[in-house]
């Protein structure tokens, strides 16, 4: 797994527009392509987004993938692109360019003791919301950011109940109890060994702490990380201010690619 701790002093700069025929592009969803909402189910996906992603996939000759903490089925419901290469649940679910789906084989029952502890603790913590992903448990506190300390205490108890092989992954107003064998960096690296990603230079756009692994991996492979939003520090060498800027940059990339193809 790529390490990023030593790079956290970086001051990221605006990203250039790379050549679409040379890169493999990986993009997070929440906080990068769409704005956050009170709950993961209530996000607003505007009608133009699937078309933009479809065009990027085509212009990059298929070397385009979504890397998200969301489950694969939830991503497909949001984007309506069930053929798109995707790493769901930080890479626990991986869909290749050929449509082959690989899932991390972890028994959801291994988290039963953590589920039981959370059910008891959350009865006394109404500001926290549990999202059960089967092989992972996400504790959300977006509706009450001030509940972070309580969320961390509750998550620490869940981790102790889960036992070896699990870790806490902190995100934007969420703490997730997940397998320590998965992260977005590993997911990116796995896709980079497959066509049509193989031989290209990886670029990763994301906003969250969970994306740091993918930034570090992309940059260790000679590519680039682009952090979206104001969160700092980050290993990413480049930055875009918000979702609107990220979408604008992606549109610029498509226009640049179309101009290059027209001139070829």
Give the overall silhouette. Answer: globular
- By CATH reckoning, the class of the largest domain would read Alpha Beta
What percent of residues adopt helix (DSSP H or I)? 25-40%
Count of DSSP helices? 7
Main sheet record: 8 strands, mixed
Computed CA radius of gyration, to the nearest angstrom: 18 Å
The end-to-end span amounts to 39 Å
As for the CATH topology of the largest domain, it is Rossmann fold
Strand content: 15-25%
Question: Could you say how many structural domains there are in total?
Answer: 2
Stretches with pLDDT under 50, minimum 5 residues: 5-9
CATH architecture name of the largest domain:
3-Layer(aba) Sandwich
Strand order of the largest sheet: 5-4-3-2-1-10-11-12
- What are the secondary-structure elements, in order, as H or E? EHEHEEEHEEHEEHEHEEH
Instruction: Label the structural class.
Output: alpha/beta
Give an account of the 3D structure.
- Helices cover 32% and strands 20% of the residues.
- The protein has 264 residues and is α/β, with parallel strands linked by helices.
- The chain folds into 2 domains: 24-32 and 64-104 and 185-263, Rossmann fold; 108-179, Alpha-Beta Complex (Hypothetical Protein Ta0175, Chain: A, domain 2), CATH 3.90.1070.
- The protein has an 8-stranded mixed sheet, sandwiched between helices.
- Residues 5-9 have low confidence and may be disordered.
Q: What is the structure about, briefly put?
A:
This protein is of the alpha/beta class and 264 residues long. The chain has helices spanning 49-59, 72-79, 112-122, 148-162, 184-192, 212-220, 243-263; strands at residues 23-27, 64-67, 86-88, 93-95, 101-103, 129-132, 137-140, 166-171, 174-179, 201-206, 224-228, 238-240.
């Amino acid at each position: 797994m790529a390490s990023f701790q030593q790079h956290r002093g970086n001051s990221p700069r605006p990203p250039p527009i790379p050549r679409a025929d040379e890169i493999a592009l990986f993009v997070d969803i929440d906080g990068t392509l769409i704005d956050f909402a009170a709950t993961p189910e209530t996000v607003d996906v505007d009608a133009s987004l699937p078309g933009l992603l479809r065009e990027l996939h085509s212009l990059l000759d298929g070397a385009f993938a979504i890397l998200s903490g969301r489950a694969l089925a939830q991503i497909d419901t949001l984007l309506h692109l069930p053929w798109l290469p995707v790493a769901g649940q930080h890479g626990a679910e991986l869909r290749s360019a050929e449509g082959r789906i690989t899932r991390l084989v972890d028994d959801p029952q291994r988290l039963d003791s953590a589920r039981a502890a959370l059910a008891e603790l959350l009865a006394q913590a109404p500001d926290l919301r549990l999202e059960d992903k089967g092989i992972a448990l996400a504790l959300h506190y977006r509706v009450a950011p001030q509940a972070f300390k309580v969320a961390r205490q509750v998550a620490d108890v869940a981790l102790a109940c889960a036992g070896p092989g699990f870790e806490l992954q902190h995100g934007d107003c969420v703490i997730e109890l997940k397998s320590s064998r998965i992260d977005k960096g590993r997911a990116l690296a796995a896709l980079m060994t497959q066509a049509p990603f193989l031989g290209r230079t990886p670029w990763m756009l994301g906003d969250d702490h969970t994306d740091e692994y993918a930034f570090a991996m992309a940059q260790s492979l000679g590519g680039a990380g682009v952090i979206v939003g104001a969160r700092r520090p980050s290993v990413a060498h480049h930055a875009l201010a918000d979702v609107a800027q990220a979408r604008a940059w992606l549109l610029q990339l498509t226009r640049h690619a179309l101009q290059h193809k027209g001139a070829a």
